[in-house]
């Protein structure tokens, strides 16, 4: 699924890059002309050699961005002239090729499709954002090329491709992601969003959070990529920024799609959709499914109301290898993220805390040999009567809560209550860790004090 403009608006994007937070209107053609083209760098090589250069934007003179520049010829050589064997993927920006720089660094080279959905504006935003932002869960920009009408971006190479490649349309011989890996990917992606929302000033709204934009390294460590649609968030007493609606169908928050009013909670909704993809193995939009199941959120929402149906939401390819309580808790977090009302969604920091708790409760299938979470033979009479028993909880332990057998709904284990419980558990876990550290420091001080007194006596 590519990016789409929902309204035919000619609203100019606003890029705020100054400390006083004044709005700066970008004019793409003039700004592109201010980029070091790579050819200019080649002319200066005989004097200064290969080096990193500054990317200065005319409209933001106070911002100097370090970015390595490449000539088109250099990148053509690195990718073996963009031959098919170097091709590794394609997105809204254009085609992506695997390349090898003279330094020996393996890179991914993204070439702008001049007839595609993105253009000079997105190219500038991506260079700007990835040059200024730095976090382990954001993909690193190695450099760019602005030779003539060529626009190319050079990134660190992520050998395992995108999360989408590991969730959907898997070939028969490819192993699906296990439960623990899925939770680790979700936690890392959430931390990337947390950095954008809470650690940058003003906040950055990603605006295109989806499984194909989450890249994985050789250890399945996730990094967010493709920042061409990123937008600086509201400042001061503003509650939102109004902008042309851009994004990917199935991931856009409803209030943003309808009004163009963008907030960080729009990203939280998109995260909830991706988290549901991780849990269910389903696509955000899948037209091959029957009516009523094609939209992931619309299909999942009714199932949230009955905990006895939660197991139906788990990816069948997991083959029951997941903690039942962990599934309940993960679905509770996803449910909160995809609330219709933006104000009802949790801040991304709370989401990070909740999912980090799930990661710490790693599932070990060897502790319950031969048990399947969806096997009716493992369910006892209490569940058939409308109650969840301890035996149904697999390796994850029991929540200890009972069902209302008449109404078929939970008494005290709603998604909101479960999310609160996760936060309490995490706070308790932190308190225990702090107590342990305090105890260790105290023992160390006493030990040192004892050594000093012995040395004083010997002296």
TrEMBL record:
Pfam families reported for this sequence: Pkinase
Ranges of Basic and acidic residues composition bias in the record: 373-393, 401-433, 441-450
Gene3D superfamilies: Phosphorylase Kinase, domain 1, Transferase(Phosphotransferase) domain 1
Primary localization class, coarse: membrane
Entry's EC annotation: 2.7.11.1
SUPFAM superfamilies recorded: Protein kinase-like (PK-like)
Segments forming domain Protein kinase: 82-358
GO CC terms in record: plasma membrane
Molecular functions per Gene Ontology: ATP binding; protein serine/threonine kinase activity
Domain of life assignment: Eukaryota
Intracellular or extracellular location(s): Cell membrane
Amino-acid positions noted as binding ATP in the UniProt annotation, renumbered to this chain: 110
Region (Disordered): 20-40, 364-459
Annotated catalysed reactions: L-threonyl-[protein] + ATP = O-phospho-L-threonyl-[protein] + ADP + H(+); L-seryl-[protein] + ATP = O-phospho-L-seryl-[protein] + ADP + H(+)
Record membrane topology: Lipid-anchor
Family: Belongs to the protein kinase superfamily. Ser/Thr protein kinase family.
Name of the protein in its database record: non-specific serine/threonine protein kinase
């Amino acid at each position: 699924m590519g990016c789409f403009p929902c309204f035919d608006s000619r609203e100019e994007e606003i890029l705020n890059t100054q400390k006083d937070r004044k709005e700066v209107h970008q004019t793409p053609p003039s700004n592109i002309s201010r980029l070091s083209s790579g050819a200019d760098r080649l002319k200066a090589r005989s004097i200064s050699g290969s080096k990193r250069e500054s990317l200065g934007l005319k409209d933001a003179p106070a911002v100097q961005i370090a970015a390595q520049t490449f000539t088109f010829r250099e990148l053509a050589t690195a990718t073996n002239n963009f031959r098919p064997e170097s091709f590794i993927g394609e997105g809204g920006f254009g085609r992506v090729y695997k390349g090898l720089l003279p330094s020996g660094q393996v890179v991914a080279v993204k070439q702008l499709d001049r007839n595609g959905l993105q253009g000079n504006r997105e190219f500038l935003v991506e260079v700007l954002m990835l040059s200024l932002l730095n976090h382990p869960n954001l993909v690193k920009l190695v450099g760019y090329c602005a030779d003539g009408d060529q626009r190319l971006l050079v990134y660190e190479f992520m050998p395992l491709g995108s999360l989408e490649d590991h969730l959907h349309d898997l070939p028969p011989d490819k192993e699906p992601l296990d439960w623990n890996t899925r939770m680790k990917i979700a936690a890392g992606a959430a931390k990337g969003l947390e950095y954008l929302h809470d650690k940058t000033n003003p906040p950055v709204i990603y605006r295109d959070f989806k499984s194909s934009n989450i890249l994985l390294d050789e250890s399945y460590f996730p990094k967010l990529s493709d920042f061409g649609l990123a937008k600086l968030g509201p400042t001061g007493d503003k509650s939102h920024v109004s902008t042309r609606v851009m994004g990917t169908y199935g991931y856009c928050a409803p209030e943003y799609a309808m009004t163009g009013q963008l907030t960080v909670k729009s990203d939280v909704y998109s995260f909830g959709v991706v988290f549901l993809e991780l849990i269910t193995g389903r696509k955000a939009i899948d037209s091959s499914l029957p009516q009523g199941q094609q939209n992931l959120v619309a299909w999942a929402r009714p199932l949230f109301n009955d905990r006895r149906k939660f197991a139906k939401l788990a990816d069948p390819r997991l083959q029951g290898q997941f903690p039942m309580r962990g599934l309940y808790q993960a679905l509770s977090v996803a449910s909160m993220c995809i609330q219709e009302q933006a104000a009802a969604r949790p801040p991304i920091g709370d989401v990070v805390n909740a999912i980090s708790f799930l990661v710490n409760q790693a599932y070990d299938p060897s502790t319950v040999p031969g048990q399947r979470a969806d096997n009716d033979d493992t369910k006892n009479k209490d569940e058939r009567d409308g109650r969840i028993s301890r035996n149904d909880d697999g390796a994850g332990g029991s929540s200890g809560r009972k069902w209302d057998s008449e109404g078929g709904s939970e008494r005290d284990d709603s998604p909101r209550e479960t999310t609160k419980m996760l936060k309490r558990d995490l706070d308790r876990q932190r308190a225990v860790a702090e107590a342990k550290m305090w105890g260790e420091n105290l023992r160390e001080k006493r030990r040192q004090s004892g050594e000093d007194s012995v040395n004083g006596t010997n002296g």
